[in-house]
Amino acid sequence: MKHQTPCRARQWNPEAGVTLLETAIALSVLFIVSAGLMSLATVAIVNSENQGHLLARTNEYAQDKMEQIVNLQFNDLVSDTTVFPTCTPTATTVCAPGSGLAVGGSADPTAAVNLYVDYLDRDGNPLGGGVVRPNNWFYVRVWQIDGLNAGPTLKRITISVQTGSSAGMRGEIPTSTLSMVRADPW
User: Which of 12, 14, 132, 186 has the most crowded CB, counting CB atoms within 10 A?
Assistant: First the structure.
């Protein structure tokens, strides 16, 4: 007679490997996690461009325009500040009409006032002024000069710079505004 061995339950072998189903589930979980991280990375890149790069450039260009205007004589009402360097009319120099430090203008980039606005391209190169925006503009700079109630010897200068668009076309357009008070030294 033959000897029969009892039926044993199959034992798990740690070297048996992974099934195709287990691999598909693991890859699906990895894909879902990666997709979530990619959307987070996109938000980080857009914010970095808008708040890091573009906002820093608008601030830099506002400071440049402030320095240009502050260097004018307090009673200068004719220099063209829409160009750089500022064109101040003399007996031998002819300039386009300008506003100098005359009271007027606007600090709202969407409401530019002629003689108180200029444009820059994407690299910060000046494109001139006027209320008609050039085709390749990327930054608009506007300024406003207010006479203060403290008397005729004080003027407040406000400069606003805004980009033409933001990265990702979402959220607010990067804008910087600077303001200072200038006194007549004499």
Answer: 132
Q: What's the predicted TM-score (pTM) here?
A: 0.73
The pLDDT tens digits for 152-185 are: 889 999 999 998 877 665 667 889 999 999 988 7
Phi, psi of 69 (to 5 degrees): -75, -40
CA–CA separation, 186 and 104 (whole Å): 22
Kindly compute the dihedral angle of the four CA atoms of residues 28, 34, 38, 41, in this order, to the nearest 10 degrees. 160
Kindly tell me the burial class for residue 39, based on how many C-beta atoms sit within 10 Å of its own C-beta (0-12, 13-18, 19 or more).
Answer: exposed
Q: How far is CA 181 from CA 65, 127, 153, in A?
A: 15, 27, 10
Looking at residue 86, its amino acid is T
Query: Can you tell me the distance from the alpha carbon of 74 to that of 186, in angstroms, rounded to the nearest whole number?
Result: 9
Closest to 69 in 3D by CA, of 145, 154, 146: 145
